[in-house]
């Protein structure tokens, strides 16, 4: 896309403005680092445009507060106090639920994931937000805790101009087919390969 211009213009009868304002479904997947980071960067742009932003984290411990949560929550407070940007909500789907699936049983985690998706579905139907980040949402899909076909149906038929960004490895093919934008993060080199653990300001 040289200089932001599409290579082809579809004969769909829509104006350039209509296509530009169409709702976007994006998926960030693959084994490389940066999937969530890229999604939160998009959320910052959405906040700057005055969009209502909602983040739903599916596979992070409720006790772990990532830097983006702090930053976006503060930006939500700026909106509430000064009217700048847009409102922000941040939700963790299940207390203590981490991608190691401990503590709690698999049944508990599956129920938490299903409840989380049910809430998102309701909000999409009600057009509660303009921009959603479903962080690490590919994992409950992969593990069968949330039905992929149902997710795709809800996302494809969502009303209005709600944008949705989904992150996580191993995104199912049906989700990739439904998405408008798919980015695969490919690892070329990582500090962990040399035995280095995550660092402050880099991983959190």
From TrEMBL:
User: Which Gene3D superfamilies does the record associate with it?
Assistant: P-loop containing nucleotide triphosphate hydrolases
This enzyme's EC code(s): 2.5.1.17
Keywords assigned: Transferase
Which Pfam families has this protein been placed in? CobA_CobO_BtuR
GO MF term (any one):
corrinoid adenosyltransferase activity
Q: Which SUPFAM superfamilies match?
A: P-loop containing nucleoside triphosphate hydrolases
Q: Where is the signal peptide?
A: none
BP GO terms, sorted: cobalamin biosynthetic process
Return the broad EC class. Answer: transferase
| Name of the protein in question | Cob(I)yrinic acid a,c-diamide adenosyltransferase
Question: What organism is listed for this UniProt entry?
Answer: Mycolicibacterium aurum
